[in-house]
Amino acid sequence: MKTLVVYYSFTHNNELLAKAIQKRLNCDIHKIEEVTRRTGLKILLDLILNRSPRIKPPPYSISSYEQCIFVAPIWAGKIASPLKTFLLQEKYHINRYSFITVCGGAPQQKEKLIKGLTKLLEQEPGQVQELRINDLLPEGKKDTIKYTSGYRIQLNDLEKFDRKIDEFMSGLEASYQPKQAVGSFASVRS
Predict the structure, then answer these.
(1) If we measure between CA atoms, which residue out of 45, 70, 42 comes closest to residue 58?
(2) Of the CATH numbers 3.40.50.2300, 3.30.70.260, 3.40.50.360, 3.30.200.20, which one belongs to the domain with range 3-175?
(3) Extents of the domains making up the chain
(4) Is residue 107 within a helix (H) or strand (E), and if so which, with residue range?
(5) This prediction's pTM
(6) What would the pLDDT profile of 16-39 be if each residue is shown by its tens digit?
């Protein structure tokens, strides 16, 4: 199956994950790049004002890929705005997709992600997986934005997520159904 990994990463945590997945699948990869430099203030303003940042267009047609794997951080419970912009621009060219993220790990976040992606793209994701930074932190630092947002993933950290990454990878092929419009599926898969 012709696969494309599309990623956005502000701190390089999700870039490391995207490149690891691309290496495992031996597939194409695309980095979402913004037209202007991103700062913490821009992230905050995008969230508050629900803005969509300008991004550089991909150099190829995404519709030529049978499946896309999207990788990006979660900001305040939402998919990072540069990926959201990409998804809105490419919405009608995406055949099948899954989403995986390195994130802080808020409760019930996965269900919200599935719901949000399904509404945004008008089709359910094949797989959604969270690799929670909280799972890497010592007890006194868990659930604290200072430590979860400041944590920088290393290769040995990704090894701690091997089981979750393996589950995601093995579920890619099995989870896909023919593309369906919202409302025509019985349940949302995770």
Answers:
(1) 70
(2) 3.40.50.360
(3) 3-175
(4) none
(5) 0.85
(6) 999 999 999 999 999 999 887 776
